[in-house]
Amino acid sequence: MTTTPATAVPVPAPPSRRRDLRDAPFLVAANGGRPERLPVWFMRQAGRSLPEYRELRADTAMLQACDTPSMIAEITMQPVRRHGVDAAILFSDIVVPLHAAGMGVEIVRGTGPVVEKPVRTMADVERMPQLLPTALRPVAEAIGMLLDELGETPLIGFAGAPFTLASYLVEGGPSRNHERTKAMMRAQPEVWHRLMSALADITITFLRVQVDAGVDAIQLFDSWAGALSEADYRRYALPYSARVLGAFEDAGIPRIHFGVGTGELLGAMAEAGADVVGVDWRVPLDEAGRRVERAVGGPRALQGNLDPAVLFADRDSIEAEVRRIAAEGRAAGGGHVFNLGHGVLPSTDPDVLSWLVELVHELPG
Ligand code: CP3
């Protein structure tokens, strides 16, 4: 460790410490290639399915943990050590940038993000604070620690897409039907577009801090985009996700774009600017590949798409699903990163996840 003397002169950001991992199986596949073995990681791998995570988090609130570099780094490492996955995902949350900007948001166990003052009027949007990169120093610091610890394993940074963040802000918390959000789009379009624009800026800042600190890929989680028709997605959400993804077009790292229930949106989500399209379990990867290719005129890498609930079945059934998905991923032809179709369910047996990694690693990329 070097120490920097205190100085009154503004210090420019240090050059990115991104490692050269271009041969890492995850990055080969994400860039559209065929690595020797099929790479695998799990959305929500860094969390409640692990006893070591629950122990570490026992006395620390979620957002407090996300603000503490040593905890971020340790929780990010836990699934890498235990399962031998091909990529780490930064331990954080999609609401961390809102919290860092000073918006009143908490993560309530068993519920999810809850917003103190929902955003519903133009005055509410105008009151939204800006996010300063300095408010995310713990995130940048944790990434620095992780680059030292991870060795050859790539690190994925992430953010929530503007639509998914807007849903939490407008509804005030998790929502099944997104009714206030959808009402705002139509009834107050100028408020909606101002809100989405502000959220795109916040999202770009959150990702910029991670990219500058050296992450090897980014994933934009638009978890709830599947609630929209394609026409509404294109009109009310896509332009803002495209602005976010476009900001990192020249960053030299793959951009993964993921949503749940987005079978009808796969083409539009690829058009928004994805190098890798995340697919849930509802659409087979070969069909997903066709939808993406029709939209953007060429293949894109795909990520997915084992139903997380299948991990509660017997091992023969799981293996049959894994082999089917690997074959469909190969048939899609644009690079395949094996993953679940959505996050690891908290009650998943961690030993099943470790076994699954070994099984996937026996398959060609
Ligand atoms: O993938 C990883 O393991 C990295 C960490 C990560 C978390 N949240 C940690 C977390 C990531 C990538 C997220 C993204 C996230 N957060 C999304 C998009 C992904 C998805 O699942 O669709 C969304 C929608 C959120 C919002 C959110 N935060 C929800 C719905 C919840 C669960 C609430 C609950 O308790 O049921 C959270 C909390 C959260 N984020 C936890 C973790 C490990 C659980 C906190 C705890 O341990 O109490």
TrEMBL record:
Residues 1-20 are annotated as: Disordered. It comes from Pseudonocardia thermophila. InterPro entries: UROD/MetE-like_sf (IPR038071), Uroporphyrinogen_deCO2ase_HemE (IPR006361), Uroporphyrinogen_deCOase (IPR000257). One of its GO terms (molecular function) is uroporphyrinogen decarboxylase activity. Coiled coil: none annotated. Catalyzes the decarboxylation of four acetate groups of uroporphyrinogen-III to yield coproporphyrinogen-III. GO terms for cellular component: cytosol. Its EC number is 4.1.1.37. Substrate binds at residues 44-48, 93, 168, 223, 342. Residues 39-48, 156-172 form the Uroporphyrinogen decarboxylase (URO-D) domain. The record marks 93 as: Transition state stabilizer. This is Uroporphyrinogen decarboxylase. SUPFAM superfamilies: UROD/MetE-like. Pfam families: URO-D. The keyword Cytoplasm applies. Pathway: Porphyrin-containing compound metabolism; protoporphyrin-IX biosynthesis; coproporphyrinogen-III from 5-aminolevulinate: step 4/4. One of its GO terms (biological process) is protoporphyrinogen IX biosynthetic process. The gene is hemE. Keywords: Cytoplasm, Decarboxylase, Lyase, Porphyrin biosynthesis. Residues 1-10 have a biased composition (Low complexity).
